[in-house]
Amino acid sequence: MSKPSLVDELTLLGHSENRLPSHPDEAKLEVFPNRNAQRSYTIELDYPEFCSVCPVTGQPDTAHLLITYVPDEYCIETKSLKFYLASYRNLASFNEDIVNRILDDLSSACQPRSMSVEGKFSPRGGIRLTARAQYPDEFSA
Fold it and tell me: Exposure of 63 by Cβ count < 10 A (0-12 exposed, 13-18 middle, 19+ buried)?
């Protein structure tokens, strides 16, 4: 994960790039300096078109993702986030694992003051699964 010190060091923003990474390990999450780091404020990133693959059936899983965070020194660059999230389209993984991995990857990239990732997955067998993970872990003892 990159931590550019200047906005002009971003490699995706402002460049015509159309090759999506085929796996999250290939994706490059970029960040930029938070110009308002002295203040606590919230950023919400709403991604209603998330897609992955069920590891048991091989069928596509879709979800509405909501990423909410309070940045510290860095903010997530949204074009790199779009490419990162799209890289899950062929990944066979359980919904709960996906939400936790996204939280781990994003919090590692930008080291926020706090972050939550919520995935509302489309119903399977009449049951909608919603998974939510938080940083720092609010369920820790």
Answer: buried
CA dihedral 69, 138, 100, 30 (to 10 degrees): 30
Q: Which of 61, 72, 105, 110 is catalytic?
A: 61
Q: How far lies 51's CA from each of 84, 88, 92, 106, 114, in Å? A: 12, 6, 10, 18, 25
Q: Based on the residue annotation, tell me whether 54 is a catalytic residue of this protein.
A: yes
Integer Cα distance of 106 and 117 in angstroms? 9
Domains observed in the chain: 7-135 (3.30.1130.10)
- Identify whether 110 is a catalytic site residue: no
pTM: 0.85
**Which among 51, 54, 72, 105 is annotated as catalytic?**
54
pLDDT tens-digit map of 61-111: 999 999 999 999 999 999 999 999 999 999 999 999 999 999 999 999 999
